[in-house]
Amino acid sequence: MASSSPYGPPAQGADAWRRTRPLDVLLAVVNGLVAVLLGVGAVVLRSPEAGAAALVVALLAVNLVVTRVSRPPVDGRRIRLEPGRTVVPFSRAGDVTLVLALVAIVALLALLAWAPSFGGRAGLLRWLAVIGLLTLGSVLPDILLRATRATRLVLTPDGVAARLPDEDVGARWEDVTGVTVAAGRDGVVVRIQLAGSDGVVRTPRRRVLWRPAPTPWIDVPLRRAGVTPEGLVGALRRWQQLPASRSRLGTQESVADLTWDPSRGTSLT
Q1: Is residue 62 within 8 Å of 97, Cβ to Cβ?
Q2: Fewest CB within a 10 Å sphere: which of 14, 102, 194, 267?
Q3: Do β-strands 152-155 and 159-163 pair in parallel, antiparallel, or remain unpaired?
Q4: So where does this one cross the membrane (predicted)?
């Protein structure tokens, strides 16, 4: 059952953040085993292609563990306190492993495309590798631009701002229309709903080929933010509804608010 926030209705879906899907664990284990087998094959057969494939699968396994299996600490260590504002950086571990996996995939495809021989199917494999390189090359710049961008949530007495992979968003507290727990592209997120007013400022980031359409919300990925859903939902609702409480921003009290966990038997004050 979802835990209640002391500042509003229960954060529905909050418990999903604490659960690890068995399928994600299974995929991580299978990828790890496949990586080991490929690595052994690369050593025995002295095959650089098998070695590159082992590296790709191993990095994908690590990415699964970082983004889906492990639960990050919620002790507030990553939260930065600055004069008059609280900054919540998002972890980049998943982005780093994704970029490394993509680089390894490019290396693997290059090896397959220019390998001296693959028996009777050499021509087909080379063409498939070339097509893969061209396809990945067309989207890789945008993926790298998105993955290598440092992202964070910034909370001030005036409003909420976010540096996101695809855009920068800033909104006044009066333009925040709701705070909920939802399923986003980064797993379980706290979704900050925004009004469609002039008070919401959006700055799209540079892209090469594609740019996602803007959405009327800010998604805070819980596994990357290092805060609890109950704490973040409750704190945002409180700062939205009670202007006097925004004086806590930039102080250690805001860290306690964002990392509040009902299972510890404590409450926001």
Answers
A1: yes
A2: 267
A3: antiparallel
A4: 25-45, 51-69, 90-115, 127-145
